[in-house]
Design goal:
Radius of gyration: 23 Å
CATH topology: MetI-like fold
Structural class: mainly alpha
Largest sheet: none
Number of helices: 12
CATH class: Mainly Alpha
Shape: globular
Number of domains: 1
Helix content: over 70%
Order of helices and strands: HHHHHHHHHHHH
CATH superfamily: MetI-like
Number of strands: 0
Distance between the termini: 23 Å
Length: 271
């Protein structure tokens, strides 16, 4: 068995320095959120006397926006997976004409600028009455999540041995039963990967949220921070506290699903 070369102290040091540089903005954001109210510029390197008043202000002013972002992100995950799973299964396991053209069309949708889609949706939403609604935002964010989920799920479903599916068909299972009882349990890593990235797309969306909302009734936290920044420039601790709170769900999901995420991304490459 070929031994992997040992990592030298130089490469380890370089890795630590690069990691520190990448994480420094996150550290400074947390540090500034624990400072007293006022400008964050003279803040020290460490919060010697942590002040959690910024978090209290952020929760009071942005708590509803955080809930809105969570509802929209979870709804987008549910809708995207509901549409992507059967589509990916059909493209991966069924002999359909035009599969290559469909896949090419899915890839092309990823190159369309978001502002073009947002402007088109604004006109359609005006006629359909979907502006300033949870359903409208969920549908808009799903336009990004569905194509990505189809590509990830199809790559994994193609790697499932055909003998497993044939055995289920011989036992009398129909296509829907095979999908539900065989393919989906085996595709758990890919489902988690697709769902996680769809959540991150929707959670961090700013363009659709800003374009498709004209009131404060449905305002995700990204738009809340944008408008909060201009109105509270003298309360940087509250602004930074809002940013920290907005980062926690995404960071927690990434940490919890990192094992499934790595497996889901590389699974289709081994076929």
């Amino acid at each position: 068995m070929k031994r992997r070369p040992a990592r030298g102290p130089l490469s380890t040091a370089v890795g630590i320095v690069l990691l520190a540089l990448m994480l420094f903005p996150v550290y400074w954001m947390v540090n500034a959120s624990l400072q007293p109210a006022g400008s964050a510029l003279p803040a020290g390197w460490f919060p010697r006397h942590p002040d959690f008043g910024g978090y209290a202000t952020a929760l009071r002013d942005q708590g509803r926006n955080l809930v809105t972002s969570l509802v929209v992100a979870l709804g987008s995950v549910a809708l995207s997976l509901a549409l992507a799973v059967p589509a990916a299964y059909a493209l991966a396991r069924l002999r359909l004409r035009g599969t290559t053209a469909v896949l090419f069309g899915i890839l092309v949708t990823q190159t369309v600028p978001g502002i073009v889609v947002a402007n088109a949706l604004y006109g359609a939403y005006t006629d359909l009455g979907l502006l300033n609604s949870y359903g409208g935002l969920i549908l808009a964010d799903s336009t990004t999540g569905v194509p990505f989920a189809i590509l990830v799920l199809r790559a994994f479903m193609r790697s499932i041995p055909g003998e497993i599916i044939d055995a289920a068909r011989v036992d009398g299972a129909g296509r829907l039963r095979v999908l539900w009882s065989v393919v989906l349990p085996l595709s758990r890593n890919a489902l988690i990967t697709a769902g996680l990235f769809t959540f991150l797309f929707a959670w961090g969306d700013f363009l659709f949220a800003l374009t498709l909302n004209t009131t404060e009734s449905v305002r995700p936290v990204t738009v809340g921070i944008y408008e909060y920044l201009g109105a509270h420039t003298n309360q940087w601790n509250a602004v930074m506290a809002t940013a920290v709170l907005a980062s926690v769900p995404a960071a927690a999901l990434l940490v919890a699903a990192q094992r499934h995420l790595a497996a889901g991304i590389t699974s289709g490459a081994l076929k």
